[in-house]
Design brief:
Helices cover 35% and strands 28% of the residues. The protein contains 9 helices and 10 strands. The longest helix is centred in the middle third of the chain and has 14 residues. Bound molecules: adenosine-5'-diphosphate (2 copies). The site of one adenosine-5'-diphosphate has 11 residues, from helix 1. It holds the Pfam family ABC_tran. GO terms for molecular function: ATP binding.
Length: 236
């Protein structure tokens, strides 16, 4: 079924309209790629899905975005809970400056988890899902910043997965990485989509065609095409 439904989403930075009425819904357990030229509104739209734009001054958003049946912009929505259900991975790896273990434990501890066995278990599972376990299992108490960029990004993916969100958003997650780390992130996304719903912003068409089930193409703040990826990348 549909997990996120957005209707007629407009977003203004001050007077400037960056999204011109986006109607887009996302299917559970699929990977959807958001593509389009730089500045077309991909990141802006992605940030609407977990209310990250609320942090930017002078932003106005109209329209509706529902996560299952809940309007995420309704008054009284708990944004911390929302961000647990809709996690985000950024372009630049941004682990917290403490141990790998505590990075991945972070959301679970915030949620009140105290049981060491539960924490150990979730941390191992998440690091395995993010294809980084073998590289960090003997260094769980090392500072996450001591690892390479590609490793840090996979730790960040594990940090998001640890709280078992419904939806994982990723904003150009591989554009700062080496090819091997990029491939590992792609494999991770293909593996986790059976459990999660994945929405990825990418400027890399090959990446979109390799991993996504559906592709949405944005241009100047408009959704201009949205279809199954296999139909969008057919050679004429
Ligand atoms: P993309 O992710 O497709 O590169 P963005 O969503 O980053 O596009 O940007 C869409 C448009 O909104 C661009 O014109 C960009 O300059 C503008 N924009 C993005 N963020 C802000 C902001 N915080 N304040 C003002 N304008 C912004
Ligand atoms: P991307 O293309 O990956 O979306 P950008 O390099 O366009 O990222 O933007 C990086 C950051 O700067 C984003 O957080 C975005 O919101 C902000 N930004 C982009 N354009 C503007 C702008 N015109 N005014 C203010 N902030 C902006």
């Amino acid at each position: 079924g549909k997990i996120i439904t957005s209707e007629d989403v407009h977003l203004y930075y001050g007077e400037k309209e960056a999204l011109h009425g986006i109607n887009l819904d996302f299917t559970e357990h699929e990977i959807t790629a958001l593509i389009g030229p730089s500045g077309c509104g991909k990141s802006t739209y992605l940030r609407c899905l977990n209310r990250m734009n609320d942090l930017i001054p002078n932003v106005t958003i109209t329209g509706s975005i529902k996560l299952q049946d809940q309007d995420i912009y309704a008054p009284g929505v708990d944004i911390v809970k929302l961000r647990k259900r809709v996690g985000m991975v950024f372009q630049q790896p941004n682990p917290f400056p403490f141990s790998v273990y505590e990075n991945v434990a972070y959301g679970l501890r915030l949620a009140g988890e105290r049981d060491k066995h539960v924490l150990d278990d979730r941390i191992e599972t998440s690091l395995k899902q993010a294809a980084i376990w073998d590289e960090v299992k003997d260094h769980l108490y090392d500072n996450a910043l001591s690892f390479s960029g590609g490793q840090q990004q996979r730790i960040c993916v594990a940090r998001v997965l640890a709280v078992q969100p419904d939806v994982v958003l990723l904003d150009e997650p591989t554009s700062a990485l080496d090819p091997i780390s990029s491939a590992k992130i792609e494999d991770t996304l293909l593996n986790i989509r059976h459990e999660y719903t994945v929405i990825i912003v990418t400027h890399n068409m090959q990446q979109a065609s390799r991993i996504s089930d559906r592709t949405a193409f944005l241009l100047n703040g408009n959704l201009v095409e949205y279809d199954k990826t296999e139909k969008m990348f057919i050679n004429p």
